[in-house]
Model the fold of this input.
Amino acid sequence: MTLGFRAAGTFFAESLRWRRGDVRWFVRWPAALFTGRFADHDGHFDPGQRLANLVLAVLLAALVGSGVGLAMISGGPVFVALRQIHRWATFLITPVLAGHIVIASGLLPGYRGVARAMHAGGRLRVAVARRVWPGWSRRRGL
Done:
Protein backbone atom coordinates (compact mmCIF):
# COMPACT_ATOMS: atom_id res chain seq x y z
CA MET A 1 0.00 0.00 0.00
CA THR A 2 2.85 2.40 0.80
CA LEU A 3 4.42 1.86 -2.60
CA GLY A 4 1.14 2.77 -4.29
CA PHE A 5 0.96 6.04 -2.38
CA ARG A 6 4.55 6.86 -3.26
CA ALA A 7 3.93 6.09 -6.92
CA ALA A 8 0.79 8.25 -6.87
CA GLY A 9 2.77 11.09 -5.31
CA THR A 10 5.46 10.83 -7.96
CA PHE A 11 2.83 10.58 -10.68
CA PHE A 12 1.11 13.78 -9.55
CA ALA A 13 4.36 15.65 -8.84
CA GLU A 14 5.68 14.85 -12.33
CA SER A 15 2.31 15.60 -13.92
CA LEU A 16 1.95 18.98 -12.20
CA ARG A 17 5.43 20.21 -13.12
CA TRP A 18 5.37 22.98 -15.74
CA ARG A 19 8.48 23.69 -17.78
CA ARG A 20 9.43 26.57 -20.08
CA GLY A 21 9.59 24.39 -23.20
CA ASP A 22 6.08 22.98 -22.76
CA VAL A 23 4.40 25.62 -24.93
CA ARG A 24 6.93 24.97 -27.72
CA TRP A 25 6.24 21.24 -27.42
CA PHE A 26 2.47 21.78 -27.76
CA VAL A 27 2.95 24.10 -30.76
CA ARG A 28 5.01 21.44 -32.54
CA TRP A 29 2.85 18.49 -31.43
CA PRO A 30 0.19 18.52 -34.22
CA ALA A 31 2.88 18.22 -36.91
CA ALA A 32 4.79 15.66 -34.84
CA LEU A 33 1.75 13.38 -34.86
CA PHE A 34 2.52 12.76 -38.52
CA THR A 35 6.23 13.53 -38.87
CA GLY A 36 7.53 12.02 -35.64
CA ARG A 37 9.67 15.11 -34.95
CA PHE A 38 8.76 15.78 -31.34
CA ALA A 39 10.22 18.77 -29.52
CA ASP A 40 12.55 18.10 -26.61
CA HIS A 41 11.03 18.04 -23.16
CA ASP A 42 12.33 17.43 -19.69
CA GLY A 43 10.95 15.03 -17.13
CA HIS A 44 9.37 11.61 -16.97
CA PHE A 45 6.28 12.49 -19.04
CA ASP A 46 6.03 14.67 -22.12
CA PRO A 47 3.76 17.74 -21.80
CA GLY A 48 0.88 15.98 -23.55
CA GLN A 49 1.12 13.03 -21.18
CA ARG A 50 1.21 15.37 -18.18
CA LEU A 51 -1.92 17.20 -19.33
CA ALA A 52 -3.71 13.92 -20.10
CA ASN A 53 -2.68 12.52 -16.69
CA LEU A 54 -4.22 15.46 -14.86
CA VAL A 55 -7.39 15.60 -16.96
CA LEU A 56 -7.94 11.85 -16.61
CA ALA A 57 -7.26 11.87 -12.85
CA VAL A 58 -9.67 14.76 -12.20
CA LEU A 59 -12.40 13.37 -14.44
CA LEU A 60 -12.08 9.83 -13.08
CA ALA A 61 -12.33 11.20 -9.53
CA ALA A 62 -15.43 13.16 -10.56
CA LEU A 63 -16.96 10.07 -12.16
CA VAL A 64 -16.26 7.80 -9.21
CA GLY A 65 -17.29 10.38 -6.60
CA SER A 66 -20.48 11.35 -8.37
CA GLY A 67 -21.27 7.70 -9.12
CA VAL A 68 -20.95 6.75 -5.46
CA GLY A 69 -23.09 9.75 -4.52
CA LEU A 70 -25.74 8.78 -7.06
CA ALA A 71 -25.83 5.25 -5.65
CA MET A 72 -26.28 6.56 -2.10
CA ILE A 73 -28.88 9.28 -2.73
CA SER A 74 -32.32 8.62 -4.17
CA GLY A 75 -33.42 12.12 -5.15
CA GLY A 76 -33.39 15.83 -4.42
CA PRO A 77 -31.17 18.73 -5.46
CA VAL A 78 -27.90 16.99 -4.51
CA PHE A 79 -28.87 14.03 -6.71
CA VAL A 80 -29.54 16.38 -9.62
CA ALA A 81 -26.18 18.12 -9.12
CA LEU A 82 -24.32 14.78 -8.91
CA ARG A 83 -26.09 13.60 -12.06
CA GLN A 84 -24.91 16.71 -13.92
CA ILE A 85 -21.33 16.24 -12.68
CA HIS A 86 -21.41 12.59 -13.72
CA ARG A 87 -22.89 13.40 -17.12
CA TRP A 88 -20.41 16.18 -17.95
CA ALA A 89 -17.44 14.22 -16.67
CA THR A 90 -18.50 11.41 -19.03
CA PHE A 91 -18.76 13.81 -21.98
CA LEU A 92 -15.33 15.29 -21.22
CA ILE A 93 -13.46 12.05 -20.54
CA THR A 94 -14.66 10.26 -23.67
CA PRO A 95 -12.56 12.22 -26.23
CA VAL A 96 -9.53 12.13 -23.92
CA LEU A 97 -9.77 8.34 -23.67
CA ALA A 98 -10.37 8.02 -27.41
CA GLY A 99 -7.27 10.14 -28.08
CA HIS A 100 -5.26 8.04 -25.66
CA ILE A 101 -6.35 4.86 -27.44
CA VAL A 102 -5.41 6.26 -30.86
CA ILE A 103 -1.99 7.39 -29.62
CA ALA A 104 -1.32 4.21 -27.61
CA SER A 105 -2.25 2.00 -30.54
CA GLY A 106 0.40 3.62 -32.74
CA LEU A 107 -2.09 4.41 -35.51
CA LEU A 108 -0.63 7.88 -36.00
CA PRO A 109 2.70 7.85 -37.87
CA GLY A 110 4.48 9.90 -35.19
CA TYR A 111 3.59 7.36 -32.50
CA ARG A 112 4.42 4.17 -34.40
CA GLY A 113 6.14 1.73 -32.06
CA VAL A 114 4.88 3.11 -28.75
CA ALA A 115 2.29 0.34 -28.34
CA ARG A 116 5.09 -2.09 -27.44
CA ALA A 117 6.21 0.14 -24.58
CA MET A 118 2.69 0.53 -23.24
CA HIS A 119 1.34 -2.97 -23.77
CA ALA A 120 4.31 -5.34 -24.02
CA GLY A 121 6.08 -5.03 -20.69
CA GLY A 122 7.58 -1.59 -21.20
CA ARG A 123 10.13 -2.62 -23.83
CA LEU A 124 10.79 0.16 -26.29
CA ARG A 125 12.96 0.21 -29.39
CA VAL A 126 15.79 2.72 -29.14
CA ALA A 127 14.82 4.39 -32.45
CA VAL A 128 11.26 4.95 -31.18
CA ALA A 129 12.53 6.36 -27.88
CA ARG A 130 14.83 8.78 -29.70
CA ARG A 131 12.00 9.93 -31.96
CA VAL A 132 9.18 10.31 -29.41
CA TRP A 133 11.16 11.13 -26.26
CA PRO A 134 14.42 12.71 -27.50
CA GLY A 135 15.39 14.40 -24.24
CA TRP A 136 14.75 11.27 -22.17
CA SER A 137 16.76 9.20 -24.66
CA ARG A 138 19.75 11.55 -24.44
CA ARG A 139 19.69 11.51 -20.63
CA ARG A 140 19.63 7.69 -20.70
CA GLY A 141 22.55 7.60 -23.12
CA LEU A 142 20.54 5.98 -25.91
